[in-house]
Amino acid sequence: MTATPTNRTGRIRPQAVLALVVATILPVLAADRPSTARSSSDDATAAERTAVDDAPGAGSFDVDAVAEDAIGDIESYWSTTFPANFDRPWPPIEGGLHPTDATDVAEHRPPCLVRSTEIVANSYYCEAADALVWDRAMLLDAAAEHGTAGVAAILAHESGHRVHMLLGVDEQAARADPDRYPLALTESMADCHAGAYFRWSVDGGGELRFDGSEVDRAVLALARAHDPVGAEKRTHGGALDRVLAFQRGYAEGVHRCAASTVDELGPATDPQAAPVPHRQLPDLVSDDLAGYFVELAPPGSGQDGPATRLPTGEPGCADAQGAVALCPEEPVVAIDSYEAVAGVHEGIGDHATATLVAGRHALAAIGRLGLPVDDANTGSRTVCLVGAWSADAVAGQGPPMPDTTGESDGWWGPGDLDEAVLLLLTDDRPARDVHGISHRGGRERVIDFALGRHGGPDACLSP
After folding, report:
1. Helix (H, G, I), strand (E, B), or coil: what is residue 390?
2. Where is this region: Disordered (predicted)?
3. Exposure winner among 62, 151, 334, 344, fewest CB in 10 A?
């Protein structure tokens, strides 16, 4: 969230998909383990910090002090990491730090802007002045929603822009070769460097020493700042782009971030479909889901894949799975009530609701393939298969969604995947097994989803 948007030209090329799965997603899965044990005092500190941040009225705490602590920790990281990895010093921030009250029109204008009001709900790195600038109110909101980790994520992202600038990917390079260095690439690099910082913190570096749940909070803070669904030009990346960029840094480190290319970016444009009302969506997607997963895992002789049972007012089965549940004995995917899915539908979007339904069809397919529907790997396989289905269902690669409003062609564009990602970051129901148990955290669920999108069902079902 740093500069005037420019055209984004990079997208994932078909010939790069297999290489992306092998070189990006799989190392991320393998490396996503802290290498340093945390002490009980570290865990207690993290729990206390989270409890304070989440308490009612937590917005009254000193956000400037929280930002100062975060910047101090981030600077401590780069003062050693940058010289060690790039053989050059990490210079002090010459232009300083500029917390700004964006609504105060009388306040002195921050660097790179004409007036303070231009920074409402934003933060940025000003290359011309070598300065970090942020809206106090925006950080206060981030702290209230995501805790100290949310504040640190935003500031680590902006510091990440300073990193790629010092490595030569600066405004001059972008002007000279905009196809090679679009804004979307530098945003991805900044997210990646933020991930590298958080890995250092989890591994015991610095003073904040975040834990895994706080890293999920940090990722959610970045993912919620994605380009809006339907944006004509996607410059900062969708939620999935941002999570994967963060994870590359978290799992593979700063050299991987510096080597980022446009081939790793998502689509540059986002055709938007008209949203489907929540009462119509389960019925509309059920045929597509049933067809996809029955083809993947054909039922046995005389059997059918699960139908989607719409709400009837009768008690649902397998209540522990949530509002949408697989009843394997019948077999049906049962929706408890329209009201039970309305919160997800209205709070996130139609693709989030479809993800809930898809997760249960994926679980049924896993059972038909003879794989366990109640072990530690069930959730990972399930969400991965949902990702594989989503790749088949996006615009141009599968049947269009019926147009219920006359406002669009009925396609689900790439931006709609942001809704699935936001659901996966905050809700474990798509990953629950047949007994309602989930073994995966939010960030892990998104990685599983991405593996399915890029590698297809085979990547989900391989040993």
Report:
1. helix
2. 33-59
3. 62
